[in-house]
Input
Amino acid sequence: MDKTNPKHIIDQLQSTITELEFKLGRTLQDKDIMKSILNQTIKELEEKKVELEEKKSLVENQSKIKELLFANVNHELRTPLNAIIGMSHMLGKTSLSESQGDYVRIINQAAENLLVIINDFLTLSKLNAGELKIKNELFSMKQLFNDLNSLFSYKANEKKLNLKFNMAYDLPESLIGDKLRINQILVNLISNAIKFTHAGFISVTASLKQNMGELKLIEIEVTDTGIGIPKTRLQSIFDSFVQAHETSEELNVDGTGLGLNIVKNLIAAMHGNIEVESEVDQGTTFKVELPLKVEEREITFQVDEEIEILIPERWKEKNILLIEDNPANIIYATELFRVWGLEMDIRKTIRESKEALWNTKYDLVLSDVRMPDGNGLELIQELRATPSAMSSTSPVLVLTASISEAEKEWSNNIAIAAYIEKPFKPELLYKHMYLILGGELPLTRKITSGVVKEARNTLSKVFSNNEKAVKQMMQVCYEQLVEAEQLQQLISDGQYQEIEDFSHKLKSTLKIINSEKMLDSIDRIESAAGNRKSLDIIQAEYDLFWTEASEFIKGFKN
Output
């Protein structure tokens, strides 16, 4: 057929048009299908979005409920503990017989043990929820060791164990890390060591293992001569609710089985590592490695147990309000203020507190958070927003058994001076009050009644005011310090091993009387002798030691 024929051309065009119309129809049909699919997809995505938002809201609500639950449980547990620990602290300062002193000490120790368990559960809950925050603050390993020695020396002495704390010479003086969590780790490890050791020693050693640029890898070893851990249980001791020994009940020890699990998780949160080596009936060594920053500047610390509370006369004219509903806590606070020579108003409900704050000008407000008819923080927030209230600008210290991160942020927004967690030591409340109320006297004053009096005060606490035991121990201390003069000859003769052995022997006595200055010097002498440092370094430390020791000897004679 002639393709140039007009009829052929028209047929071809018609065929092409038909084909295009068909394809266009298919395209339009596909477009409708695609549009329908797209609309269905959009609808499903919107439904999924709504579902996810509902789940997100549910999770957030559950998180808030859980946070509130833990806060309430924390509050309900700590509130009676605050009263128990506080009142036993006050009772311990009164004149007691030897047996009464023992009873008070046992009550206080039981309450402290319960507080440890509560803290363990709360720490575990925060770890599991990913809510634990690691702080970076300036601290001294030496000070931390001194505090731990004070905490555990009595328990170690009761079991006739030699508790030793050692620091390597090259360990930096000032470190940056989470002191509270490092302390929690060591409290768990040392407590376990004492619990499972019936003879011998517990040694806690800190050293610089490796320089890592701006970080230093610090290694802390806790070694004991205890019953050891079976190899079959070494891999599981860091699991929750697992005891190191299957026969813990037979060993007559307490514990939740949470301690080592918390230790491992805290160390992991600080990007550190922990290892354990143990032999049954030979002892156990835990090695903790922590990467910490170093602060070059020197820092000064104050220890609460070493201060004397001095109440300025002007405080007796101050108008102070306590907002608290718990009867035991009211008695504790009232008794504490009575001893300090101070008075305060007390309100037991939010309604009563509001009436007082709106009509009276207070110089200081001490407020609980969870009250039977409302929230203390909400009350303060309303107070701050009411300029006509007499105490609208009064400083507020929050005394609470627990406070959440949200409540801490809330406190900052409503100008809370500080919050103090119950149970609290009187010295901590005193410090915060002084920062607010001021006064002519210094914030704290070191007790400077002489090394002999300090030693007697320490021994009186250790032996529950048993004067006979105090005198016997003072005599032992005196004799050993007189004998310590022979250290001078050993240094002159360069007898490193003898210097190290004698220093180590003397440390046990100095720990009992808690003589920080002498103990620090003897620690350094022992370490320097063990590492064969210059005799000039050892002599310098001995001169510092003997200045304090001779004062004790002279004071004892007089």
Notes: The first strand starts at residue 137 and ends at 139. The radius of gyration is 34 Å. Confidence is low (pLDDT under 50) at residues 247-253, 297-306, 440-449.
